Amino acid sequence: MSAHRRSRLGEQLRRELSVKIGHAVRDPEVGPLVVTGVDVSADLWFARVYVEPKGSEEEKARTLAALGRAAPFLRSVLGRELHIRRMPELRFERDVSIEAGQRIEEILRKVLPADEAEEEGEEAERESPAAEDPGAGDGDR
Predict the structure, then answer these.
(1) Under a CB-based contact definition with an 8 Å cutoff, are residues 11 and 69 in contact?
(2) CA angle 49, 55, 60 (to 5 degrees)
(3) More confidently predicted of 98 and 90
(4) Helix (H) or strand (E) holding 70
(5) For residue 108, how many C-alpha atoms fall within 13 Å in the half-sphere facing its CB?
(6) Residue 68 falls within a domain, yes or no?
(7) Half-sphere exposure of 2 (CA within 13 A, CB side)
(8) How many CA within 13 A on the CB side of residue 124?
(9) Which of 32, 44, 49, 80 is the most exposed place for a label (fewest CB within 10 A)?
(10) CA distances from 123 to 115, 126, 128, 131, 132 (A)
(11) The 89-94 sheet, strands edge to edge
(12) Total-model pTM
């Protein structure tokens, strides 16, 4: 299967799983979460589903465990609805990319606080009325 078709399938699985987890899964251990992405293997045997659960670390761990238990049910429901020849096995993983991005931004804020102040000053100069009107301050021509 081509990479483009796999990415389309992954996006479709992401959309469907977002809805199905919220409505069809009845496990009370599944807390609020966001399905951030799905990577489908080239042979369609596995689909790695990235989720961002909400709550404390304990609640996040319980949510991931409950999703692991619900994976066969979700796979069968999606297989019937999507009508694809091979429905991949679903493996749920916590998406750590959001936390990593926030950590990088925090480090950059600590390292570059003076640069941000300079950039804000430059933006203010660009937005001043003299900068908008090229003829302002020229006097006689």
Answers:
(1) no
(2) 40
(3) 90
(4) helix 57-82
(5) 8
(6) yes
(7) 3
(8) 6
(9) 80
(10) 12, 5, 9, 11, 13
(11) 33-40, 46-53, 89-94
(12) 0.72
Non-local (6+) Cβ contacts of 28 within 8 A are none
Separation of alpha carbons 64 and 70, rounded Å: 10
- 134 inside domain: no
- The confidence score (pLDDT) of residue 85 equals 85
**Of all helices (H) and strands (E), which one includes residue 35?**
strand 33-40
pLDDT the model gives residue 86 = 87
Domains identified in the chain, total number? 2
- pLDDT-derived band at 99 (thresholds 50, 70, 90) equals confident
**What are the pLDDT digits (tens) for 45-56?**
999 999 999 999
Range of the domain at 50: 3-95
Whose tokens are 């670390």? That residue is 57
Give the span between the Cα atoms of 37 and 76, in whole angstroms.
20
